[in-house]
Amino acid sequence: MPRLASPHVINIADLRALARKRLPNAAFDYLDGAAEDEVTAKDNIAAFSEVVFKPRQAVMTNPDLATRLLGVDLAVPFLLSPIGYSRMLHPRGELAGAGGAARIGTGYILSTISGHPLERVREQNDKVFFQVYLMGGREATKRAFARAKALGYKGLFVTIDTAVAGMRERDHRNGMGPLMARALLPKLRYLPEIMRHPRWLARFLLDGGMPALPNVVTDTGPLQATDVGRALENAHVCWEDLKWIREAWDGPVVIKGVMGPEDALRAVDEGADGIVVSNHAGRQLDGVAGSLRVLPAIVEKVKGKTSIIFDGGIRRGGDIAKAICMGADACLVGRAYAYGMAAAGDAGVDRALEILIADLKRTMKLLGANTVKELSPDLVHLKPGFRVD
C-alpha cells in the first residue's frame, strides 16, 4: 500500500492530485469524469460558492456531529456513497470504503457494480446499505436482496436515473471498453500509458484484473464487467417496480436520483423511507442543474415526510454544512473519499474522512452551531438566481 504523507495532504484537491499521479488515464478519468461536456459535474461544485454563510458570533461551541438516519445512529451526518468498479482504483476497493466508514462511525453504501461480495463488505462495517440496479433480472436481484438481508444490511438505495449509461467521453477516449475486455489485441494501443504506472498495474494484475460482479448472479453465474452497459439498459427502474421491491425487502428503501419536487412527492406516495437529491455526480444527463440548486424546492415539498439525503459536488466539510442548513438530513460523500482510495487505499480513505470531519467541525464552530440540528436555514443566504424550481 502506498504511504500517504498526511501532513502534506490538507484538502480533497490534494488527494485528487495524488490519485491523478498514481492512476493511468483510464482509471483516473473513470473516477474523475462525467457525461459529455461535464457541465453538470462542474455546476455541482460551483453551486456551493453561491451559498453564503451567515454565522452567529460569540457563541461557545463544542460541535457534536452525531445524527440518526433511516433508523441508524451515525457519528457524522454523511455516509459514503456507492462507487462502481472501486476495485479498479485499488484492490481493496469497497473493503477500504466500508472500513473507513466504520472507523469514523458512519454508514457505507455498496454499489451493485462491486468487485467484492456482500459478505466481505459486511465484515468491514455493521452500518452497510446496498445500492440497487436491477441488473441480471428480477430473480437475480431478489437473490441479492436475500443475501443482504441475511447479513444485516440496513436498507436499499434504489437508483432511478440510469435508464442508460451516460455518454462519458473520457472513458471512450481512454479505451475503458477495450481495457475491461478479456482480449489482448484491443488493449495494445493503451498499454504505453498503463505502463507508466507500474505500481497500479502490478496491483491490478495481482488482483486478477477486472472481476465479474459477485453480487449480480444470474443462472449462468456472476455478471461480467464487460456486460454491465447492456445489462443497465435492460434494468431501468420504474415506479411500478417499487411494489415488488417492497415485497422482497422489508427494511428501509431510499430512492436515489431525485431532481425535482414532482419525483420527490411520487417517492413519498410510493412509501419511500428516504430520497437522495442527486444527478449521479453529473455522470448521466449533462445539462441539468447542480444538485444543490434543486434542493430548496424539494425540501419545501417533502421535508418531514421522508428523509432527505443530499449528493453532489461535496469536496469540503463546509459543503456538508451548507446542504444541511438548506434542509438535507444528511449527505453522501463519493469522489472525495474515492480520490483517497485511489491515492493510498485504506490510508487514503482515512485521510479524506479526517479532512472532511475537521472541516465540518471547524465550520460549525465558526458558525456557532453545536449540533447537526442547529445547522439551520438562518445560517445561510442564497445568491440571487441560485435556486432552480
Describe the structure.
This protein is of the alpha/beta class. Helix content is 42%, strand content 14%. An eight-stranded parallel beta sheet has the order 4-13-12-11-10-7-6-5. The chain has a two-stranded antiparallel sheet with strand order 1-14. A two-stranded antiparallel ribbon has the order 2-3. The mean pLDDT is 94.
Number of alpha- plus pi-helical segments: 17
Rounded Rg: 20 Å
Secondary structure tally: strands: 14
Instruction: Give the overall shape, derived from the CA principal axes.
Output: globular
**Spans of at least 5 consecutive residues with low confidence:** none
Instruction: Classify the beta-strand content into a percent band.
Output: 5-15%
Largest sheet: 8 strands, parallel
How many structural domains can be distinguished in the coordinates?
1
- Look at the structure and give the CATH class: Alpha Beta
- Classify the fold: give the CATH topology: TIM Barrel
Oligomer: single chain
Helix content: 40-55%
* Name of the CATH superfamily: Aldolase class I
Architecture, CATH level 2? Alpha-Beta Barrel
Strand order of the largest sheet: 4-13-12-11-10-7-6-5
Structural class: alpha/beta
Short structural summary:
By secondary structure, the protein is α/β, with parallel strands linked by helices.
Outline the secondary-structure elements.
Elements: H1 12-22, H2 25-32, H3 39-46, E1 51-53, E2 67-69, E3 72-74, E4 78-80, H4 86-89, H5 93-103, E5 108-110, H6 118-124, E6 128-132, H7 138-151, E7 156-159, H8 169-174, H9 176-180, H10 191-195, H11 198-206, E8 213-218, E9 221-223, H12 228-233, H13 241-248, E10 253-258, H14 261-269, E11 274-277, H15 291-302, E12 307-311, H16 317-325, E13 330-333, H17 335-367, E14 380-382
Parallel strand pairs: 4-13, 5-6, 6-7, 7-10, 10-11, 11-12, 12-13
Antiparallel strand pairs: 1-14, 2-3, 8-9
Helix pairs in contact: 1-17, 5-6, 5-17, 14-15, 16-17
